[in-house]
Amino acid sequence: MLETVRLGANLKARRIILGLPQELVAERANISRATLMRLEAGEGGKVEHLMTVASVLGIAEDIIQATDPLNSDLGRARAHLLNRQRAPRRT
C-alpha cells in the first residue's frame, strides 16, 4: 500500500514539475480527472491507466526498464529460468 502512495505522489510531482494541469493529463491519457486523482493519491487503478499517464508524463519507458528483471544482478544470474518450459501434463 505504501508503495502505491509513493508512486502516486511521484506521478503528481512529475506532473507538477512539467507544469501540466490534471485536466490536460487526464485528457491526453483518455481517462477522467477522477481516475487521475485516484492514481495520484495511490488509491489504485488499472495498470493500463498508470502506463498511459506515465506515457503522457514521458516516463513509461523508465517504468518498463525498472521492472526488467535483467536489469539486476539477480535477474541476470537467473536469466536461464526465463527459458523454462512448462512440464508436460501427466496422463
Q: Can you describe what's shown?
A:
The protein is mostly helical. It has a single domain (2-77), classed as lambda repressor-like DNA-binding domains (434 Repressor (Amino-terminal Domain)), CATH 1.10.260. It is 60% helix and 0% strand. It contains 6 helices and no strands. It has helices spanning 2-17, 22-29, 33-41, 47-56, 60-66, 73-77. Helix 2 crosses helix 4 (47-56). The radius of gyration is 17 Å and the shape is elongated. The termini are far apart.
Task: Name its key features.
434 Repressor (Amino-terminal Domain); 6 helices; mainly alpha; Lambda_DNA-bd_dom_sf; Helix-turn-helix transcriptional regulator; about 60% helix
What is this structure's SSE topology?
Elements: H1 2-17, H2 22-29, H3 33-41, H4 47-56, H5 60-66, H6 73-77
Runs with pLDDT <50, length 5+? none
CATH architecture label name = Orthogonal Bundle
Query: How do the SSEs run, as a string of H and E?
Result: HHHHHH
Shape: elongated
Mean pLDDT: 92
Strand percentage: under 5%
Summed up, the helix count is 6
Helix share bin? 55-70%
Radius of gyration: 17 Å
Find the structural class using helix and strand composition: mainly alpha
According to DSSP, the number of beta strands is 0
Tally of separate domains: 1
Query: Which fold name is given in CATH as the topology?
Result: 434 Repressor (Amino-terminal Domain)
Main sheet properties: none
CATH top level class name = Mainly Alpha
